[in-house]
């Protein structure tokens, strides 16, 4: 594997080119008069108040998932989103230094401990890296390391060498899916890259790279949009079906899937330094940002190919994931491209921080953002708050804050 890219070493490269890490204007280093620093500060303060409200809505053994019919819906640890609220609490501890958030994050992280042994789906990265991973980063608590390593080992049990990918969901005979892999799975690779660094065992990263490469080969269309699900023949390892589960159609570009791909390949570039991942990330960013169906406020409809007659629901979660990814991606490119990605991220952030997307203090059950979509085809979580929208919104605030302070955007 090539040398890992860090924001710092990239910044040094830019400095050598006479450009500089925070070249550009208002969205780089703090510029007076753009109001962005005070927006970041006020949104983080708002998030802190809301998170304490949300924290009071589910017992420590359960996890806030969404807010429907005037009540917070909590889930058990096995649901794929359970790492996001503990992760949000860790971010708020990072932002405030307040021990209250550290203690609440620690309690909610502890409730995910058993997930390290869960081999039933691929979402261990979401569950464990956002919770235990952020906790380890911020506290250095060495008891978190074996949990993360066991989680990475459990995740690798879903990697079958005959296919060369991590199986996302279990086989689904009803859909004819022998070995389904979803674009979302790119996100779980971050745990594997971390595991190789922490353990010195290259196998985790090697399998993450195999997964990212085969996804690159088979998940993308000519226009750089991605399929949601590619199912493989478990014996030959060849793609058998390219379909959707949560998008509008098999041929459409499900908005959150594009966001997962963007974030996933940006992260994979950070971890490997492979140009092919950076190129893919920029191609996805351009698909999203130059898409004629992206509304002016840059908060996408739930699917980029939603027909006009069905253009009702936005997906704020897709916007928040895209925002955070673009802030990072902007550090790996230069010039106008850097400015375009950063300006787009700031525009998304400003959209999300205002009506109709941002909740008012004390409402929304304690969630920060409204108007996300879980899965329209399943009739599940339509136009509601979702814990992952909030997580990536807070992550975006922190990333932008660091960037404007001249710090590395991604802390590891
Ligand atoms: N990873 C599942 C989803 O994005 O809905």
Keywords:
single chain, 412 residues, mainly alpha, Glycosyltransferase, three-stranded antiparallel β-sheet, two-stranded antiparallel sheet, 9 strands, 9% strand, binds glycine
Task: Give a structural overview.
Helix 3 (84-96) runs parallel beside helix 13 and helix 6 crosses helix 7. Helix content is 47%, strand content 9%. It has helices at residues 7-16, 36-55, 84-96, 99-110, 124-139, 144-156, 189-199, 203-218, 255-272, 275-289, 316-330, 335-352, 387-404; strands at residues 63-68, 71-75, 159-160, 165-166, 180-182, 229-232, 239-243, 372-375, 380-384. By secondary structure, the protein is mainly alpha-helical. A hairpin with a 4-residue loop joins strand 3 and strand 4 (165-166). The protein has a 3-stranded antiparallel beta sheet, with no helix packed on it. Strands 1-2 form a two-stranded antiparallel sheet. The protein has a single domain (8-404), classed as Glycosyltransferase, CATH 1.50.10. Glycine (GLY) binds next to loops.
């Amino acid at each position: 594997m090539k040398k890992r890219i860090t924001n710092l070493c990239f910044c040094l490269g830019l400095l050598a080119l006479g450009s500089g890490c925070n070249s550009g204007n208002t969205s780089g280093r703090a510029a007076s008069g753009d109001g962005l620093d005070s927006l970041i500060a006020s949104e983080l303060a708002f998030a802190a108040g809301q998170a304490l409200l949300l924290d009071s809505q589910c017992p420590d053994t359960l996890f806030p998932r969404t807010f429907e019919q005037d009540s917070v819906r909590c889930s058990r640890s096995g649901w794929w989103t359970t790492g996001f609220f503990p992760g949000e609490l860790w971010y708020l501890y990072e932002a405030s230094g307040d021990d209250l958030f550290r203690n609440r994050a620690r309690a909610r992280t502890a409730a995910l401990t058993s997930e390290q042994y869960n081999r039933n789906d691929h979402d261990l990265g979401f569950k464990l890296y956002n919770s235990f991973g952020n906790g380890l980063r911020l506290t250095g608590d060495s008891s978190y390391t074996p949990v993360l390593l066991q989680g990475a080992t459990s995740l690798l049990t879903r990697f079958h060498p005959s296919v060369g990918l991590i199986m996302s969901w279990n086989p689904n005979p009803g859909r004819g899916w022998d070995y389904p892999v979803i674009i979302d799975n790119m996100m779980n690779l971050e745990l594997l890259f971390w595991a190789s660094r922490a353990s010195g065992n290259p196998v985790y990263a090697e399998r993450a790279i195999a997964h990212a490469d085969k996804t690159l080969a088979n998940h993308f269309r000519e226009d750089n949009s991605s399929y949601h699900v590619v199912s493989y023949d478990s014996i030959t390892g060849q793609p058998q079906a390219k379909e959707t589960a949560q998008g509008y159609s098999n041929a459409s570009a499900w908005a959150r899937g594009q966001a997962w791909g963007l974030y996933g390949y940006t992260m994979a570039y950070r971890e490997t330094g492979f140009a092919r991942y950076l190129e893919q990330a920029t191609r996805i960013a351009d698909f999203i940002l130059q898409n004629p169906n992206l509304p002016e406020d840059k908060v996408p409809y739930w699917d980029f190919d939603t027909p006009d007659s069905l253009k009702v629901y936005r997906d704020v979660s897709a916007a928040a994931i895209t925002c955070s990814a673009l802030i990072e991606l902007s550090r790996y490119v230069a010039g106008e491209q850097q400015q375009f990605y950063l300006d787009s991220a700031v525009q998304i952030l400003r959209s999300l921080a205002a009506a109709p997307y941002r909740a008012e203090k004390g409402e929304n059950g304690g969630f920060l953002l409204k108007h996300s979509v879980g899965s329209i085809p399943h009739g599940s979580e339509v136009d509601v708050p979702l814990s992952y929208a909030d997580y990536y919104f807070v992550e975006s605030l922190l990333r932008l804050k660091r960037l404007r302070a001249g710090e590395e955007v991604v802390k590891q």
